[in-house]
Amino acid sequence: MSATAQIGVTGLAVMGRNLARNFARNGFTVAVHNRTESRTDALIEEFGGEGTFVAAHSPEEFVRALERPRRLVVMVKAGEPTDAVIQEFAPLLDEGDVIIDGGNAHFEDTRRREKELRERGIHFVGAGISGGEEGALNGPSIMPGGSAESYESLGPMLERIAAKAQDGTPCTAHIGPDGAGHFVKMVHNGIEYADMQLIAEAYDLLRAVAGYSPAKIAETFRGWNTGRLDSYLIEITAEVLAHTDAATGKPFVDIVQDRAEQKGTGRWTVQIALDLGVPVSGIAEAVFARSLSGHTDLREAARDLKGPAATPLGESEAAAFADRVEQALYASKIVSYTQGFHQIRAGSEAYDWDIDLGAVASIWRAGCIIRAAFLDRIRAAYDAQPELLSLLSDKQFAEEIGAAQDDWRAVVAEAVRQGVPAPGFAAALSYYDGLRADRLPAALTQGQRDFFGAHTYRRTDREGAFHTQWGQDRSEAESG
């Protein structure tokens, strides 16, 4: 077999198959390989007319089909299966070749693999790919890490297959060294968790408090999607809420069990945020909300706990409440993105990645799950002020969230009054209030720590660390 393929994809489940087709549709000759040979043959038989494919039925045949420097995309399950594929193919590669992991790998695994392969002269690229099956086929958002040299070889190909923003910019860019790409993809997914939770809370409040039907809420979301909340998730939420179950005639949302599953990237985001000391309370509440939904036995045991009586709203009151929910949703979304970008900045500093936050916002504008109209404004904010510490420090976002705060507070208060759980809205508002507070009660917390553990504290009127002899001071006060 002669070396004619410009890129190869091994692992031909739905994502890998669609990514291979995307490369082929964009004019590249693509070598395809799968451990189960029938998948390779099925791809060629079904989609061979979409472009030029080279079928390979063994690792050796696959590698021989690739032009130098070889570019090999691995699309298998994260963890041990990825390591197994790397161990299988690395001995067959030469110095300067590139292995690309397009799965949802933990960024620390990517850092380890990149270091091990770098010592053998092989480039390793951890590429976060967002957009699901459709994105993989028609244009995803791609977040590649790895060496700058590897991006020189791979980047033009990724730019060809990636989604394009409205201004024509490809939704991919070199994120940074080793695990930077998978780190950014992890945070993307954390923001996605928060975004979905906030949308779910908006739906729940419109139904439980405003008394809207799923069809009415779908109509409301469609209206929101024509304004500042324009996004993929708002768009598909309207579709889900408008859907009627064919078997029962009921709203689709009513025949789905209220148990949300998760694959782990949201948990990773929260775990790593804790390690970095970054407050991502909105993302954390979204993860915990999914976890709570899955504890059906715990929820069943608590079903008879007392709560407030529902207070139905009139038609005009409901419409006014829906407008307030839109404000709360928008403000809370800004907080979620603020927390996510803060975590990316912290990770970039901790691992010396030098990530361009404006570029991250730019490549999330199309193709990915959290694509939204206001990402263009986030990109502009970071491009104008690369050292911007927080999106809430940007004048325009600060003005908007300030204008929304009264309605935001009213929605959270109404949720509490009527007993409708809204942990995402409440956490986002608490984060906002925590940032703007002149003083936080952490002063008391630190005093407690010094009392029971001699952990010391810092004073407002002088430099240095101090410790109070609490027992001695109390004894002297009592004797005096």
What characteristics describe this protein?
about 475 residues, alpha/beta, globular
Provide a concise account of the structure shown:
The protein has 480 residues and is an alpha/beta fold. Helices cover 56% and strands 8% of the residues. Helix 15 runs antiparallel to helix 16.
Shape annotation: globular
Task: Tell me the series of helices and strands, N- to C-terminal.
Answer: EHEHEHEHEHEHEHHHHHHHHHHHHHEEH
Task: Give me the Rg, rounded.
Answer: 26 Å
| Order of strands, widest sheet | 3-2-1-4-5-6-7
Oligomeric state, counting identical vs distinct chains: single chain
What distance separates the N and C termini? 95 Å
Mean pLDDT reading: 95
Helix content: 55-70%
